[in-house]
Design a protein that fits this description.
The chain is an alpha/beta fold. It has a single domain, classed as Alpha-Beta Barrel (TIM Barrel). It is built from 9 helices and 8 strands. Strand 3, helix 3 and strand 4 form a beta-alpha-beta unit. Helix 3 runs parallel beside helix 4 and helix 5 packs parallel to helix 7. The termini are close together.
């Protein structure tokens, strides 16, 4: 399985080649770039070109990009609305898709091949209208991403529309066979449980977000610092017919560019060796 590190770990810092080099030294074969403007400004040609130049000269792969959650540099703390493709207001849904397309355009220079997408926010409900909004967004963004060589992967969250069962319903009803799933282990732990999530999503799983929690909050802890049963989890992931990428997605308040963090990254990757 491909060993990837999400740059979410460095969300409080501008993403620069030095952080990518740190990821590579810590055992990562690839990265998932977290598209947050204060971290990686996907709208800046200069910032995109800087990373693209580095990737061309180094073996670390840009496996995926996490779609933006907010359109500003404050992660919504200053009042900017979330990027929500399920919002009841059509103008908000259009704005959300436009913001995601801005991030996707970075694939013209940085050859990532997967975009991780959130469908809505924590409080969104499940309805026929939700299904229609989700399918419209995935069809529209999928058509935009395809010429760029990017596949959409929807992520299970902790909301009603993004349970494993409901994600499968959205994809099957929309005949969206070209869209895969990013299985988030922490979110599965908080909702239906990891074994059920793996069984439900099965062959659609192309990527796995690896982090831990204690079952109540989305803490993004290092594996082993929460209550996930890792031997059973690793066995379930390894039993999938097509090995997914394992993407370590640790909370940015818990990380820093230090030897201790590098050791923890290597130990986390070793779980799936």
């Amino acid at each position: 399985m491909l060993r990837a590190l999400s740059t979410h770990l460095f969300l409080n810092h501008r993403l620069h080649p030095g952080l990518l080099e740190f990821a590579a030294r810590s055992g990562a074969e690839a990265v998932e770039i977290f598209a947050a403007r204060q971290h990686f400004d996907y709208s800046s040609r200069e910032d995109v070109s800087e990373l693209a130049s580095w990737f061309r000269s180094n073996p670390l792969q840009p496996f995926s990009m996490h779609a933006p959650l907010f359109p500003d540099r404050e992660m919504g703390r200053a009042g900017a609305p979330a990027v929500n493709v399920l919002h009841p207001e059509k103008s908000r849904r259009i704005d959300a898709m436009d913001e995601i397309k801005r991030a996707l355009e970075a694939a013209e220079l940085i050859p990532f091949t997967n975009l991780i997408m959130h469908l809505g926010e924590r409080t969104d409900g499940w309805s026929q209208r939700t299904i229609e909004y989700a399918q419209t967004a995935l069809e529209h963004l999928g058509a935009f991403a395809r010429p760029l060589g990017v596949r959409l992967l929807v992520e299970n969250l902790t909301s009603e529309p993004t349970t494993p069962d409901h994600l499968v319903t959205i994809l099957e009803m929309g005949h969206l066979d070209n869209i895969g799933v990013c299985l988030d282990l922490g979110h599965a732990q908080m909702t239906v449980g990891i074994p059920e999530a793996v069984a439900t999503l099965g062959p659609r799983i192309a990527s796995v977000h690896v982090h831990d929690n204690n079952g109540l909050k989305d803490e993004h802890l290092w594996p082993g610092d929460g209550t996930i049963h890792w031997p059973a989890t690793v066995a379930a992931i390894k039993a999938l017919a097509t090995p997914p990428a394992t993407v370590l997605e640790i909370h940015y308040n818990l990380g820093a560019e230090t030897p201790e963090v590098s050791d923890r990254i290597e130990k986390a990757f070793a779980l799936f060796a």
